[in-house]
Amino acid sequence: MASTATVRDLRNRFPRVKKLVETEGEVLVTDRGRPKYRLTLYTTSPVAKSPPIKDYMVRLSRYQSRPLGAAAAKALHEENRGKR
């Protein structure tokens, strides 16, 4: 069972409440006799691995398996350019 402390204890005797949290792991804080808050010991989460680096050439080769020739690239450019 968790230890209890009052809001007044937090204001006036914080070092004692801090020690309770460190030893017990959890302290219920009461306000006017009713439990209102729960103080727990903060633990840092483990460092997450960074996502793998994306290989854009592999992704590009899925959509365009072989490179465009010079004539095909020029025709595509002209088509996209329109009448300018």
Short description:
It contains four helices and three strands; from the N terminus they run E-H-H-E-E-H-H. It has 84 residues and is α+β, with helices and mostly antiparallel strands.
Characterization of this structure:
The protein has 84 residues and is of the alpha+beta class. The chain has a domain at 3-40: 3-Layer(aba) Sandwich (YefM-like fold). It contains 4 helices and 3 strands, in the order βααββαα. Strand 2 (26-31) and strand 3 form a beta hairpin. The protein is rod-shaped and about 80 Å long.
CATH class of the domain at 3-40: Alpha Beta
Low-confidence stretches: none
What is the CATH T-level topology of the domain at 3-40?
A: YefM-like fold
- Secondary structure class reads alpha+beta
Distance between the termini: 78 Å
Number of beta strands: 3
* CATH architecture tag of the domain at 3-40: 3-Layer(aba) Sandwich
Number of helices: 4
Order of helices and strands: EHHEEHH
Task: Please tell me how large the radius of gyration is.
Answer: 32 Å
Strand coverage percent: 15-25%
Describe the global form. rod-shaped
Task: Give the helices and strands, then pairings.
Elements: E1 3-6, H1 7-12, H2 14-24, E2 26-31, E3 34-40, H3 56-63, H4 70-81
Parallel strand pairs: 1-2
Antiparallel strand pairs: 2-3
Question: Keywords, please?
Answer:
84 residues, YefM-like fold, 20% strand, three-stranded mixed beta sheet, 4 helices, rod-shaped, alpha+beta
